[in-house]
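Recap from last week: sequence in, structure out.
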Amino acid sequence: MAEHTKDSRIRSGGKRAAGKRRKPQSKRRKALTITAWVAAAVVLLGGGGLGYLYFKLNGNIKGVDINAALGTSRPAQVDNGSMDILVLGSDSRAGKNSQYGKDEGASRSDTAMIVHVYKGHKAASVVSIPRDTLITRPSCTTSSGSTDPGGKRLMFNTAYEVGGPACAVKTVESMSGIRMDHYIEVDFTGFKKLIDELGGVPITTTQDINDSKSHLDLKAGKHTLNGEQSLGLVRTRHGVGDGSDLGRIQLQQAFIKALIEQVKGVGVFTNPSKLLGLANAATKAVTTDSDLASVSSLTSFANGLKSISSSNMKMVTLPVQYDPADLNRVIPLEAKSQQVWAALKADKPIPASATKGSAGDTGSAGKVVTGS
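Predicted structure tokens:
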């Protein structure tokens, strides 16, 4: 698979190299997810046996044509066997999400991660972008068809609010100079349902966590978090650390690793009803780019990533410092951020020097949660 272009990995359908190497299902075959919200978004459907359910599941998936929206003014495709995916968790309060706050008619990206899958698809790096990062946002087309001019010192998560997935992708590509091969989004309700279908996620907390705003109350010790509790954990910013978004990102990264191991170890392929429930929840939970917006495409995509586990996934936060003019915001450390982007462009590991001294990778919030 590493010898094919990024486009051929997705567009050549059943002729993909990964498809040719596909082996019969066995008890050792396991599901995979690529990141925290990611796991929520892309539970792996595992191929054959869906039968007449294919069309039901296919109808669940929502797709966005990023390529048509952005046109040709994008970073070039890179043919080195790697892949880059923008994963967003949206904070819409509409419908069933209203319990998490007032619906103000717009959504923002509550969680944003760039997942870089290395050549060979045995390892990945994940770069979390704090939603409060002040950036230079490019111009974007709004949902009404008008043009938002963008500008300097605008919060990263407003890109999604202004122009939806296409503007979020355009903003990330403008920041990084890296073309996003795919886009995956999951909302609050979908995330909860997927965790519940999975049977919960075992974790251990090293201290009490109590945050009424995220509906989370956990004593120190071992827990199996249900969907509501899992959502509370990845959303909390007041129950742990200094109350900043940076501490919350560290919790999210710790939870992702626990979630990945749980998904890989549940053995859903020996339990057809469990597989169906997960597939139904996963396909309802996600919005993807149009290239992934089908059961067959998601399955093919997933099969190419099944060797990635938490032990070979490096997770960092975009190098930032608190903004001297507003300590509720952060600004990128430009030289260190460029180290991160340069490493991913070259399909190399992110060097330790890139995150040394960054406010995003200091603090102890990430040590509060471990896998169980």
